[in-house]
Amino acid sequence: MPRPDLFRSVFGRVMLSSLLVSLLSTLALFLVVRNIVAADGRAMLAREVDTDLAGLADIHVSGGTAELRARIADRMAVEREDGERGWYLLVDGAGRRLAGNLDRWPAIAPEVSEARFVPLPGGDTMFARATRLGGDTRLLVGRSNYRGEALLARLAMAFAGAGAVIALLSLAAGHFAARRLRRRVETVNAAFAAVRAGRITARAPGAGENDELAELAANTNAMLDQVERLIEAQRAVSDQTAHEIRTPLMHLDTRILKAMQGTQDEALLRTLDQSRGEIRNVVRLLDSLLDIAGTQAMRGDLRGLLDTNLSEIADNLADLYGASAEELGIGFHARIAPGVMLRADPMQMTRLLSNLLDNAFKYVPSGGTVSLTLSAGPHIVVQDDGPGIPAADRDRVFERYIRLDGAQGGGHGLGLSLARAIAQRHELSLHVEDAAPGARFVVRPEDDG
């Protein structure tokens, strides 16, 4: 099974989640620190502006408007060492500027001595407070916030760099942890894949550690132990059942044969012969059921499989069925590619092919045609031009005891069930298609489209 991509993998999602949490945590911390720094900077500006405003108000009270204008001019002439700039505006009741370096009164209310950040014409901002002096005279004092804005910019850069480092560390740590977890989960998946491939004794490592994945490995191994015990028990029961039922039936057949040898009654002989036929029929039914059950139990089990030349098996069967076809008046054609190999049980593959051919000959009337095709893959096709199989019955024909109308001769309806069980044991699929006319049975690898 291919690995899921990053966003579908649980380990990828864990890694991305840890990255997202680290980035969100860094962003939240930045916002908190930024608000604290901005609040402290605003408080410092407010203290400085309030102190300056209070001093100018005292000058106005003691020296009047002329003195106040002189002191404002003195303050504007001073260059501050910290690079900050002071802003002043003194207007009369008509709104005419009396002093200061602002051209117009900003949107700030002097009646309530409002203090806040206001925009400057050049796009910068200042923190200002306005108040009303005696009469209708209004005074505004402001300070630029170059230091605060620069500090916030440096803070943003610092957190951006720190966030990048944290993101890289989170990715590295998440990738390392995800790889380690993936390896441990893959060992469990590998154990299941090995069991499915036939290595029933495979187990998941890491069960001795002390975490959730170790518990998963331990539970996996316990489950596989149970599966192995059940498979062995099923095989033992099948073998014992076959022996316990077949033996008394064969003994009964022997006693009937002895009874036939000791009588000359024609009617009794016919009855006894019919009884022997029914006994053999029951034995064949029992063998078929056990074969199907045993084959299904060995699905994916590679034990006992050999590198098998399917071409040789198909050639031998083609010779055998070709002779029978001539006697039945049926046309038989075989197209068999040489050297088609498969790791398989030779006897079971022989039974699979012979069951499909038997089924084809059973439903094809005299004058009809049956063909056998084998190509690399392997791909096996058995086709006839008989009455075909209705679409509603194309899955049912592989069930046990299903016999469609029109079959020539007897049977228990188990041949196709056994053929599919054999195919599945060898990781092959078997299905039937409409041959228009007739039916086409196709065997191919399970992983083919």
From TrEMBL:
Q: What EC number(s) has UniProt assigned to this enzyme?
A: 2.7.13.3
Q: Which InterPro entries match?
A: HAMP_dom, HATPase_C_sf, HATPase_dom, His_kinase_dom, HisK_dim/P_sf, Sig_transdc_His_kin-like_C, TCS_sensor_his_kinase
Q: Where does it localize?
A: Membrane
Q: Where, by residue number, does the polypeptide cross the bilayer?
A: 151-174
Question: What sequence ranges are listed for the domain Histidine kinase?
Answer: 240-444
EC class name: transferase
Which named protein is this? histidine kinase
The top of its lineage is: Bacteria, Pseudomonadati, Pseudomonadota, Alphaproteobacteria, Sphingomonadales
